Amino acid sequence: MTIRTILEFPDPVLRQQAKPVTDFNAGLEELVKDMTETMYDAPGIGLAAPQVGESIQLIIVDVSKLEHAQKTMVMINPRIIGHEGHQVDEEGCLSVVDLTANVKRFQKVTVSFQDLAGEAKEITAEDRFAVVLQHEIDHLNGILFIDHLSMLKRALYKKKVHKMLAEKETPTEA
Ligand code: NI
């Protein structure tokens, strides 16, 4: 198991449409192990494969709070096939540093996916769990939570990141 580097905005991989997984092989299992370690190390409550530079349709979600044991749910080729209501909750993202903001999401979602063995599954989630699923599935479509904010908020954040990057690139003398 290896802790992978988490890509940060504005890395272009985060903006790609992730490819469907067709090969349920040992490499996929290895990637899930790396992602699990990376997520708990960060720490985060969900991670999408593109965040570690693998543009494929794979997400993992920490369900410890629901199951009362350290447990990760692995979802491959996930799709939202049903939704109900709305909620607003505060979100952050391991790939969007130094920002949290309220985002409007569905209150309840039904998601179809495949497990690591390639078996078709379905799950209905609500509240916070539903938020995490929507956030992670967005990653597979090149969408970040900042895309759900107002244009002004997004512009302010982009400006801040560009400033941070410019400062990093300035060579330090002495
Ligand atoms: Ni995220």
What can be said about this structure in brief?
The chain has one domain (12-169): Peptide deformylase (Peptide Deformylase). Helices cover 30% and strands 32% of the residues.
SSE layout and pairings?
Elements: H1 26-41, E1 46-48, E2 58-62, H2 64-67, E3 72-93, E4 96-114, E5 120-126, H3 127-140, H4 151-169
Antiparallel strand pairs: 1-2, 2-3, 3-4, 4-5
The structure holds nickel (II) ion (NI).
Q: How many strand segments?
A: 5
Helix percentage: 25-40%
| Highest-level CATH class | Alpha Beta
Mean pLDDT: 94
- Continuous helix count: 4
> What name does CATH use for the topology?
Peptide Deformylase
What small molecules are bound in this structure?
nickel (II) ion
Counting helices, strands and paired strands, the structural category is alpha+beta
Largest sheet: 5 strands, antiparallel
- Low-confidence spans: pLDDT under 50, at least 5 residues? none
What sort of overall outline do the alpha carbons produce when their principal axes are compared? globular
What is the name of the CATH architecture? Alpha-Beta Complex
Please, how many domains? 1
Q: Kindly report how far apart the N and C termini lie.
A: 39 Å
